[in-house]
Design a protein that fits this description.
Blueprint: H1 2-5, H2 8-43, H3 48-54, H4 57-62, H5 64-78, H6 82-87, H7 93-131, H8 141-164, H9 168-172, H10 179-185, H11 187-202, E1 210-213, E2 218-225, E3 229-234, E4 239-243, H12 246-249, E5 253-254, H13 256-261, E6 264-272, H14 282-288, H15 295-306, H16 328-342, E7 353-356, E8 364-372, H17 377-394, H18 408-417
Antiparallel strand pairs: 1-2, 1-5, 2-3, 3-4, 6-8, 7-8
Length: 420
Amino acid sequence: MGAFANGWMSLIGILAVLALVAFSGKWLTTWVFRGLIRRIAARTKSTWDDYMIERNVLVRVSYIVPAVITYYGIGPALGVTPADITAAVDPTALILTTLLVERVSLAFIVLAAVMALTAALDAVNDIYNESYSEAKTRPIKGYLQVIGLVAYIAAGVVIVSILADRSPIFFLSGLGALTAVLLLVFRDTILSLVASVQIMSNDMIRIGDWVEMPQANADGDVIDIALHTVKIQNWDMTISAVPTHKFIGESFKNWRGMSESGGRRIKRALHLDMNSVGFLSDDEIARLSRYEMLRDYMAGKQGELAGQGPSEKSEDSDVIPEKRRLSNVGTFRAYILNYLKAHPMIHNDMTLIVRQLAPGPQGLPLELYCFSNDTNWSTYEGLQSDIFDHMISILPEFGLRAFQEPAGTDFASLGTDRGD
């Protein structure tokens, strides 16, 4: 009990020296890690040491140094030996202080160690993402987060056992009764862990996939797959965080298949005014036959129709014989089909259809169903617009009109024509 006999002033001085030594140890190790080791890492060709430094793994390890100095120095500083602690039946204030500081220091060592471990796991994830091409298809971030979570739980049990001076087995033995509570507390974590395993094993989503989940208001690229959440950067540059287990329990659309196929679907209809639909006259047939996209079609159709006449001649001169004729809408459909086949940006190895849909109040829909050979969004939209620009512009050549519901200017011109 020498420190106590020398008075409180000397005791405070000794504690100040201990604090200064602990701070100096922290400063020295931090300087070594941030200075010397950083310089060594900068000269190496490998990148794993750079990631360790960026994630502050060594800095967190340096937190252990002042705790170790305090743990082993508090006893000598207060003049308390292990024998004094063991033999004391009625502990004095110095003995209690020594025990408290030692336990807190040891608990801090455990905490600093687990913090360094989780930082190292983050560095491992960075190294894996950079070094392995399978990182996008097989991310390991969720599994590393599980390891970190287990490490924090184990560290929590150890810290509590240190502060309470009890064996960790004492606390673990009581966890059985708390199983239901733990399942409730870690429900989302368990669901996310199971979902992560299913997502990875079934290759449902990858980093970089275009994913659409309307119920979560998410539509964009996957930028991160973690244990609890999947981050999606929407097209308006906002970021949606969707719980990982939602990708198992709810439906979503992954556009990866479209990107890998090399073709993106164009499915859009042009509505025609049915009042403009009719048969072609001989002059119109002759004029349209000069079009490059219709030359073979018109020649084939004319030859086909020339060989077909009425099956029987009627004796009644008033009867108009039935014969096949070319319609402007059918010829226009053939023109668009040949136009798409000759277009360099249309995928000819995929479905290519120009078809009529059921007519309705909005006219006769003529639908294009084809695929572009460039899946880039801006290129795809530009191609789609160019095709329909051409279709709408060439309609008058076939005597067709696009259907459009009357606007205010139409009613105004109608009133002007009537003299109102």
